[in-house]
Amino acid sequence: GRMHRRMREGGRGEVGELAAAFNQMAVALQHQEQLRRALLADVSHELRTPLTAITGCAESLADGALREDKATTERFLGIITRESERLRRLVNDILELSKLQAGALPIPRAPLPLAPLVEDAVEIARMQAEAGVTVTYDPPADFDPELAVGGNEDRLAQALRNLLDNALHHAPAGSAVTVRVETQPEWVLVHVSDAGEGIPPEELPWIFDRFYRGSQGTVRAGSGLGLAIVREIMLAHEGRVTVESAVGRGTTFSLHLPRAQAAMPGGVKL
C-alpha cells in the first residue's frame, strides 16, 4: 500500500524495463487513489449542505412549527422539497459520471441529423430562459439541413443542454445566449456563447473537473458535474469540448463532433 515508493531506474535490458514499468504502475495507482479520495471528499461536501437544510427544517417542524405557523410550515416544506430534488439530481449525476468514466454506460452511435438536435435544444433553452435573456440560433446560409454527425441522439442532446443550462445560469439580464454551427471537412462545431462574467485564464484548465468551484464560484452551476459529463460524452464520441473565455466579456463552449461517414437510412449519402 505504500504507493509513493519507487524502484531505482537506470538498469539495462529487461530489469531496467521492469523498474520503469513498475514505477509507471505505482504512479497510476497513486493517481487513482488520489482521485478516489477527492471524489469521496467532494461528494461528502456536496451532500452536507442539502442534508443540513433538510434536517434543520424537519427538526423545526417537529418542534412545533408544523402546528403553530402555517406560513413557516409551507416555507420549510418548500425548502425540504427543493433540497431533496437537489440531492436526487446530484446522486443521478454522480452515478452517470461514474458509469461514463468507467465505460459502463453503452453509447451506441449512428448517423444523426444535426439540425433537429440543435433546434430542439434551443427551443427547450428558450422555455427555460429567465425574463430578459434571449436564446438565438441562426444557422449559416450554406448550412445543409441533412448534415449528419456520428453520435448518440440522447447523449449529444444531453451535452448540448448542459452547455445551454450553464450559459443561461451565467447570462446577465438583457443579454443573449447564442448558438452557432460551424462546418469543417471532418468536423462539425456547435458553439454556445454567453455574455456573462467570463472565466479567469488560470481557471480554464480545471473547469471540466467534477465539482470545480473556481476562485469566486463563478464557473459552477447546478450539481457541479454538468461540464464533467459533457467532457465524458464527447470523449465517448471521439470528439472533444473546448472553451474560450474573457473576463467581463463572456464564454464560448464548443462541441467538436465527427461528421458521419456512413449512409443514412433511405440511401442518403453523407
Protein traits:
270 residues; alpha+beta; two-stranded antiparallel sheet; 5 helices; 9 strands
Structural description of this entry:
This protein has 270 residues and is an alpha+beta fold. The protein contains five helices and nine strands. The strands form three sheets. It has a five-stranded mixed sheet, covered by helices on one side. The protein has a two-stranded antiparallel ribbon with strand order 1-3. The protein is flat and about 80 Å long. Mean pLDDT is 82; it is low at 217-221 and 262-270.
The coarse silhouette is: flat
Helical region count?
Answer: 5
Task: Give me the secondary-structure category.
Answer: alpha+beta
Element order, helices and strands? HHEHEEHEEHEEEE
Characterize the biggest β-sheet. Answer: 5 strands, mixed
Strand proportion: 15-25%
Number of strands: 9
Rg of Cα set: 23 Å
Strand order of the largest sheet: 2-4-5-7-6
Which runs of at least 5 residues are low in confidence (pLDDT < 50)? 217-221, 262-270
The percentage helix is 40-55%
Report how far the terminal alpha carbons are from each other: 53 Å
Oligomerization state of this entry? single chain
Mean pLDDT level: 82
